[in-house]
Amino acid sequence: MLAQYQIDLKRHFLSATNIVVYAALVILMLGTFFAQTGKPNTTQAGLYSDYAASGDALSNEIIALRKQKYRTASENERLAQKVKERSYFDQIIMTASAGPATDVDQLNTVLLNYAKYTQRVTAADPHIRLQLIKYTGESLDRSLLGRTKEVTFYNYLLKHHIREIPVGAIHAPATNYLTYAFLYHISPFLIIAVFLVAMAELFTLDKREENINFTNILPISKFKVLLTRVLVSLTLYIPIFLAAVLSVFVVTGLHNGWGAWDYPLVYSLDGKHALIMTLAQFMLRFIGLIFTILLFFIVLNTATSLFWPTIGTNFIIAGAVLLTGLPAVIAQSAVGSIAKFLPSAYFNYAALILHQTSWPTLGYFGGIAVLLSWAIFLLIGTFGVVHHRQLL
Amino acid sequence: MLTVTDLSFSFKHHPIFDHLNFSIHDGELVGLVAPNGTGKTTLLRLLCGLLLTAADTLVLNDIKLYQHRTKYLKQLFFLENSNQLYSELTVADHLTYVKAMWRSQIDIASVIDELEMRDYYKKKIKTLSLGMKQHVLLAMYIISDAQTLFIDEPLNGLDPTSIQQFEHIFLQLKNAGKSMVISSHQMDSVGRVSDRVFFLKDQQIIDVKNTGQDMLTIYNQTFLKAGD
Description:
The complex is a heterodimer of chains A (392) and B (228).
Chain A: H1 2-13, H2 16-29, H3 31-36, H4 43-67, H5 73-96, H6 104-124, H7 144-160, H8 174-185, H9 188-202, H10 205-208, H11 212-216, H12 222-256, E1 264-267, E2 275-278, H13 279-307, H14 311-323, H15 327-330, H16 349-353, H17 363-391
Antiparallel strand pairs in A: 1-2
Chain B: E1 2-11, E2 14-24, E3 29-33, H1 40-48, E4 58-60, E5 63-64, H2 69-74, E6 76-78, H3 91-101, H4 108-114, H5 130-144, E7 148-152, H6 160-175, E8 179-183, H7 187-193, E9 196-201, E10 204-209, H8 215-223
């Protein structure tokens, strides 16, 4: 089996498809980088502008309320509320007005203070409409969990003396750039689809190059040949993916700075409490999950190539399975509670890792277990088909 | 010994072979002769299990193909033509691979020397001429050390010197106890090396013992219509 692995690896290693896959991944990941090339770094100015815009909205509301000659009791309450909010915003805007020279801890302190205030108010009455900071490119979360997440986030930033880097940051440092790319900028389905093309090519190479009959007279079980191909695929795709990630990290790092792996992402396991996941933890989980997803699709291709040995058919079948992981499909009520036992529930790695899925799942490790179980199930099915054919 | 019992095969309802029965003994070299499209390659594919046959049709040294496929295949080697070589890999890659897969003890270097392949041993298959590729194929057969060899038109693209070299090696392998079925259109060569010749005609095998008669005359008598 070692000789089979060695020759298969050498054959597929020399394939031009590997270069294409690597290039496609790098181009996908560098999309934001290219779009920002030549632009000045306006991240801090943008943040200030976000604070100021929220402050202005607040001021306008206060002015409008004050202009009313006769205010009801609830309007007086609302005015008092807005004045209180405005006082927090004044501190934030004043502290942030120094631009890049702003003291990080001071800014984090005033942002944390406001986050704590909004958390208290929301906890007391979730219907009170607070003026929240609307960051460019991010959605507002008015829920108590959203407020709790913000408190946890600024607490962490303050404790670790880290400057906030928003999702829409221009020239984000490499650590943030990569994480945001996988979380927000590139669809997980696109990354997986790139590999599906490569898999369809790899698993049909024998047929296309007309040396399938050589493979079929080898004095080893056909199942071992297929198993070898699974190992070869993993041996190729893991380094290709890591090389693409490393290349993007180096390119963005040299241009934008390297950043810190302990920068926080906030998530919640139970919908009540907020937890911190560092960028390093995210990347480790992401790599673990994407490799498991790739393994599942490799095994799926192994099975389908037994019946349909053409690139197009293999890609279409694997692509169709991939599309069942789209939120619009997997979150359908028709799929119901069985969704969490389907591999499709775990293709959207970004949502899964940050526990933001709108469909039932078994969590990160449960997802890995489900994907591996399906891969094993498919392998057993493949073994059954091959064994049956050899007995014919 | 290869024993074939009641072998029938049809392609899209068109019968190719009809109830064939034959044996090939150890150390026997059988020539396989027929006009193009008659089924020479199909027969060789059937003998290797590349095409489906009935369960008990093929027995090689007491091993039935569909009971012990791996053991059956371990005893034979068949590579249809040089197009099935891996074009991006080198000659060395192929020979090392075959040696490992068939768990052979044959020394690669001595085969390379015998077939005078030293100059292109490290070259990729895609850079070789047809004659060179035929040498690579023959080297793979030798290195596999399989007991039974099915060789499909090995003399295509060879110069007269190489043809003599190949015939010499076929006889060496036969003397070493290998069973061989070699398909060819070169009747003079078939006459020189074969113990028996299978002429494929009308879905049957006409088994002719080679006693030194002129094989081309027999071919003409078998396949050419009166007046041709």
